[in-house]
Design goal:
This is Cytochrome P450. Keywords: Heme, Iron, Membrane, Metal-binding, Monooxygenase, Oxidoreductase. Heme binds at residue 328. Its cofactor is heme. By secondary structure, this protein is mostly helical. It has one domain (10-381): Cytochrome P450 (Cytochrome p450, Orthogonal Bundle), CATH 1.10.630. The chain contains 13 helices and eight strands. The strands form four sheets. Strands 1-4 form a two-stranded antiparallel ribbon. The protein has a two-stranded antiparallel sheet with strand order 2-3. Strands 5-8 form a two-stranded antiparallel ribbon. Helix 3 (60-75) packs antiparallel against helix 9 (177-208), helix 9 (177-208) crosses helix 11 (239-252) and helix 9 packs parallel to helix 13 (331-348). The longest helix has 32 residues, at 177-208. Bound molecules: protoporphyrin IX containing FE. Protoporphyrin IX containing FE is lined by residues 5-6, 17, 186-187, 190-191, 194-195, 198, 254-255, 258-259, 261, 284, 320-322, 326, 328-330, 333-334.
Amino acid sequence: MAKGILVSNGLIWKQQRHFGIGTLRKLGMGNKGMERGIQTEAHYLVEFFREKQGEAVDPSFPIVHAVSNVICAVVFGHRFSLEDKTFRRLIKAFNSIVAFGNSHFYYMCEMLPWLAELLPGPLHKARFSRDFVRSFVRREIKSHKEKGRIDEPEDFIDFYLKQIEKTKNVPNSTFDEDNMVQSVFDLFLGGSETTATTLRWALLFMLVYPDIQDKVQQELDAVLSPSHLICYEDRKKLPYTNAVVHEILRFSSIILITLPREAVKDTTLLGYHVPKGTLIMANVDSALFDPAYWETPHQFNPGHFLDKGGNFVTREAFLAFSAGHRVCLGEAMAKMELFIIFCSLLQKFKFTVPEGVKEINTDIIFGSTMKPHPYKLCAVLR
Ligand code: HEM
C-alpha cells in the first residue's frame, strides 16, 4: 500500500496529509515564519546572478537550488551550499526519478512489470536514485534523533518524531518511520520541481515580454525603496506584479492534468454517473485556458487578474493548484516563494536575451510538469 501523501489513499493519506499541512503551518507556511527562509534563498540567487556580471547563463540549476533549499530548511532544518556534493547528488537523484516517471519505460513497467525486470537499465537507475534519497532522509532522521529535541521541535522531522511518540499507543495510527520518509520525499517531489519550473517560465516570459518586465519594474520602483527587503505583504501594494505572477502560473500551466485519483463512492457529476472506483484525472489546463472564463486565454495578459481600477482580483477558473480534497498542499508556500523570488530578482536585474539570439523558444517539453526548453539569459544590474 502506497505511503506518504502524494499517491496514498484512505487512512494513510488522511492522516499524513492532515499532519503535513498542520506541520507546514506550524513551521510558518503562509506567514512570517517561512518568509525568512525564502528571503535567504532569494538573496543567494541575487548574488549568483550578480557574480555573473551580465554574462549569458542558464538559470535552471541556481533556481532548483534556491527552491529545494527552501524545502530543506523546512524539513531538515538546514540549507546546502551550491557546491555541496551530497546536495548535488540529491538533486540528480530526484531528476532521474522524475525523468523515469516521464519515460515510456515507466508505462512498460506499469503494463508489463515482468518484462521491465528483464531490462535492467532504466528501472535499476530509478530504484538506485529512490534508494539514495530514502537513505539520505533516514540519515537525517537518525541525526535528528541524536539531537533529541522532540520537546522543542524546529523542523518537519522533529515534529514527525514527536508525532510518532505521541501516537505510539493509538490504534490505527499510521505515523511511523516509513510514512515519515515518504512524506518528506513527497514534499520534495511535489514542491521543488513545480516551483522551480514555474520560476524558469517566469524569467523566460520576462525575456519574451520586455514591456511587461518594464511595467513590473516601474511598479517596484514606485512603491519600494531600492534596498527594501521584499516580503509577501508587499503584494498588496504591488497589484500589477502580483497579477503577473498569477498570469505566469496560469499561462505556463505546468501540470496540465493531475495524477489519477479514484472515486471513493458512487456519485453524479454534471449529470454523469461516476461509479465508485472510477479513475479520475482533473484537466487543470482546460480551466486555465477556458475561453468562457478568460478574456484572452491564449495571450500572456496580466489584465486577467486586474479589475478596471487596476486592483488585483483572483479568478474562479484559476485552478493551477487543482481543487477539492486533493488540492495542492503547498499552495500557500508556492505562492510566497514565487512572489518573493520573482520580485527580488526583478528589483535588482533587467533580464535580457543574450546577444545573437534571434528567437526564443516557448514550446513545452512534455512530462509530469511542462518545462521550457533550456535557455540562457543575461541578468544586467539595474
Ligand atoms: C508552482 C508550484 C506548485 C504547483 C503548480 C502545484 C500544483 C499541484 C497540483 C495541481 C496538485 C494536485 C495534484 C493531483 O491531484 O494529482 C498538487 C498536489 C500536491 N502538492 Fe503541489 N504544487 C506546487 C507547489 C507545491 C509545494 C511548494 C509543495 C510542498 C511544500 C507541494 C506539495 C504538494 C503535495 C504533497 C501534493 C499532494 C496532495 C495530496 O495528494 O493530497 N506543491 N500540487
